[in-house]
Specification:
By secondary structure, this protein is α/β, with parallel strands linked by helices. Helices cover 41% and strands 11% of the residues.
């Protein structure tokens, strides 16, 4: 049966359809800079009256602006802000500790790991990891596991890993995640590695915790060239380097054009992944245009869904953050 959703489905449409699933929920979103997908998602779902939206980011002023934008559409929705720098494991631990002290937030229904950086010049995080892998994956991995108790306290716990079809650009470099300290660095390949990690984290969360009622999904939101994510990218130059990276990997994007979405369209798969009931039998999947991605159509690449790679990445991530998580 053909899906009722496609690339033109809007977040506003889905918020209306899924209003009953959103109402009363506690939602935590990372990466909430105004003009970015996390902010747009938070503002859109506020219209359906969740109980609380927690806005997590490294710039307090940015989170505060998104708080004000939420109040403008629904002043009845409570908000909290949380300072977190995903490029610092110390900051992540401090933020998680703060969440765990909130007696007025006994559970979190939906965690949306949305924050990311993209195609930045080579640098390392304060902990010594290539910055895209460290920020986009390791920071979220540690934060998610540290607050897992509050997530599992929900009656309907769900975790959404915002990935990208950019995972096509690289699998995990198991013996050299840091690209030889920059010697072998390609900013698009490194972005691809970090997005592959986002996919695999959802796969492994579902495998480890579905018996506790947890649902976990990853997704490609779509392309919006002027979102906050692309702040470090000069498309006049970097479009050609992206095409070169696709040529190196032999993907369909050698010749396929990128289709820009509207701000309302690009949050649709966020809303779907966070609140639909349609995916109960498909825990851990990667979504594209509010549908389960089709590997035959090059919507998902094999290294972005492999359960062995997901298990390997979990173990590697525990080693890198210096903490094991047993469930």
């Amino acid at each position: 049966m053909a899906s009722k959703y496609d690339k033109h489905t809007t977040g506003s449409q889905l918020v209306k359809e899924l209003e009953a699933n959103i109402k009363g929920k506690v939602i935590l979103v990372t990466g909430v800079t105004p003009g970015g997908i996390g902010a747009w998602f938070s503002i859109a779902v506020a219209k359906a009256s969740p109980r609380l939206i927690i806005l997590a980011g490294r710039k307090p002023a940015a989170a505060q602006k998104t708080t004000e934008d939420i109040a403008a559409v629904n002043s009845a929705v409570a908000t909290k802000t949380l300072n977190i720098d995903l490029a610092s494991l110390d900051s992540v631990r401090t933020a998680a500790s703060e969440v765990l002290t909130w007696s007025d937030v006994p559970h979190i229904d939906v965690l949306v790991n949305n924050a990311a950086i993209m195609a930045v010049p080579y640098k390392k995080t304060v902990d010594g990891f290539e910055s895209q892998f460290g920020t986009n994956h390791l920071g979220h991995f540690l934060f998610t596991n540290l607050i897992m108790g509050k997530i599992l306290a929900s009656k309907t716990p769900r975790i959404v890993s915002v990935s990208s079809n950019g995972h096509r650009l690289n699998p995990i470099r198991w013996t050299d995640i840091n690209y030889g300290d920059g010697k072998y660095y390609n900013k698009w390949a490194a972005y691809g590695q970090s997005k592959t990690a986002n996919n695999l984290m959802a796969v492994q969360l579902a495998a480890k915790l579905q018996n506790r009622g947890l649902q976990a999904f990853s997704l490609h939101p779509g392309v919006f060239m002027d979102s906050a994510l692309g702040a470090s990218v000069d498309w006049n130059v970097d479009f050609d380097s992206l095409k070169a990276a696709d040529a190196m990997m032999g993907t369909c994007y050698i010749s396929k054009e990128f289709e820009n979405k509207t701000a309302d369209e690009i949050i649709a798969t966020h809303v779907y992944a966070a609140f639909t009931d349609d995916l109960k039998d498909n825990n851990g999947v990667y979504l594209d245009n509010c549908n389960i991605a089709d590997q035959y159509k090059e919507e998902v690449w094999p290294w972005g869904k492999d359960p062995i790679d997901a298990d390997r990445l979990w173990t590697l991530s525990e080693t890198l953050v210096g903490q094991k998580f047993q469930y």
